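Q: Can I see a sequence and its folded structure?
A: Here is a first one.
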Amino acid sequence: MAGPLIREADFVQSVADALQFISYYHPADYIEHLGRAYEREQSPAAKDAIAQILTNSRMCAEGRRPICQDTGIVNVFVKAGMGIRWDTDRGLQQMVDEGVRRGYADPDNRLRPSIVADPLFARKNTGDNTPAVIHVELVPGTTVEVTVAAKGGGSENKAMFTMLNPSDSIVDWVLATVPKMGAGWCPPGMLGIGVGGTADKAMVMAKEALMEPIDMHELLERGPANKLEELRIELYEKVNALGIGAQGLGGLTTVLDIKILTFPTHAASKPVAMIPNCAATRHAHFVLDGSGPVALDPPPLEAWPKVHWKPAADARRVNLDALTHEEVKLWNPGQTLLLSGKMLTGRDAAHKRLAELLNAGKSLPPGVDLKNRAIYYVGPVVAVRDEAVGPAGPTTATRMDKFTDLLLEKTGLLVMIGKAERGPVAIEAIRKHEAAYLIAIGGAAYLVSKAIRSARVIAFEDLGMEAIYEFDVKDMPVTVAVDSRGESVHQTGPAIWGDKIKKLKIPVRVA
């Protein structure tokens, strides 16, 4: 008997709908576990960051706009039953890419195209976020199981791999590696770990492990049933005991869960891969059986905890249009600022062009005057409806470290805004020029965008989302991460909270 017929139109529509769905709905398990982390968090900075993420999450669910401005590189895991038939003349890659193209171009919720080709030289944006990365498995059965994920660059860039000796400790490697990952992956999130097989197999398993439901709370309540669950709990507790905390600011929760998949491997090998999932964890699972496209059920609004972020009463208001060295010198690490006025934006590609112009002794483009101004490391989502701009959260600042001293010295730039820590080269440049680095919360892009009153492209329009914009903002919330003296909260915060957890024996469980 012939198996069910899977129509191309149904497959493509289901992929497109899933990408829209995961852009604005967090999985319910993530919301629940993050809510528990918020309730028990004792670090004020980390608690504020989690409050912004939770508030942003509900705003996105209600407004149907992206949780994060980085709407990801699409990863698709397909398990195709060998009993099915396809009604299409296209290959699987073509069908998935058509679903991505439609999903990202939806006029009611435009998603940011972030994919560039080729990766080595031109790095030109493909304009529709294709192609997707696909993993296919042929399995017995008469259905097609599909898991769709959108993986942000901040967390993807922190993927780690090692080839351990068979006698080496995975726990030791993880605990030595996580602090080196910094906060660019926007904790609190998950760690997916793949062990065994070959190097490529381990990496795929680590990615696939992130698609599993978050169940650490339930696991801690019932206790481990096998050695793998014992290992998950051990890693969960020891990673959180590092004190890295939300956004790397120091706190009790760095990971909400740790997932591990294994595969038989060569007797001489122990390949281990680790990939984090960020605060914008996005994935959905659906099954096609030939009856039509799939409709996903959104989490009920009651699933979100009653957390409504608002700035602290002692937050300092800053007029960006009258920014001075004297004002910047008053800021302290960990302090909350509310920024109002005009700022410029710029990411990797824009910084590269600016550096080339400065090194060649040429003038910067008209309108790009950085003297005594702030630059925001962001690539926003295109606006829809009455928005000034779409979700506009920060990108990882360390990618701009090598340009920092040049821009501070040659342009008079005073303030940089991004996410996560700065490296030693950038921190020294900030100290030398008595500038400052501020962070906006990664995973709160829609919340941040509500502070942006107007946006216009002023240079490098051909770079798309990496063009230089001018934003006019009102009370945009940020935290001082590196002050004019070169003190970094990403160094002091985790050190303080790691010591507190150790000395005061603060429990790191959420059960």
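Q: Show me another, different protein.
A: A second, unrelated one:
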Amino acid sequence: MTPPLAAWGLDGTPAPLPGGYRNTVLRVGDHVLKTTRRSEAAVAWLVPVMDGLSAHGLSAPRPIRAADGRYVVDGWTCEPFVAGHPCGPNALRRLWPRLGGLPQRPGFAAARALLDLHAGGDIDLSRMPVPLARALRKAWRALPKRGPCLVHGDLNRSNLIRSDRGITVIDWDEARMDHPGFDRFALGSGTPTEARAAQAWEIACCWHLEPARARGLARRFINDTRKRRNSDASPC
């Protein structure tokens, strides 16, 4: 799949970058081109999100408009390349902001909304085994009620870049408005309930895109559910 370099006025030979398990990621000079499943509106939603992030001393590579004004051209996006070194999630524990007041990202749904809805983002519970979908919803229902806030959705070492300018957070493909526990879990400070909800989310997101991984995670998730049920039923 060849990126439309001319759309952004770029020239050169694209070189693959590591990461991007669900998308192709290429570098062309000082730019990064990525395949995307997101709509134009879903990518445009990131711009005010990144404005809010900068107010808290963090940065993110903004999507770049093509010559015709679009963010998405033939299933590709473009953003600046960020130089630096990966850093661990611990670096964000005290910095990660709780940004609220934004509308839900177009095409996405929060975990609480998915208690009633079937689909949002990469998730389609209607195409999963009913018992598994019920177990995932149960994990999300257990989350304490909180107002939705910005959730990056994939805060791992490969998506955090430290440079002289501070920390830059990349790969916003899974960002949405949701329960703060999803990012707290990724940063190593979540509760067991938040950890289980995050595991359920990963299974649901991977079910169609990474089926082998999803089924392995689901087996462990269901086994853990059975152990919890048996432990609760054990006599004192």
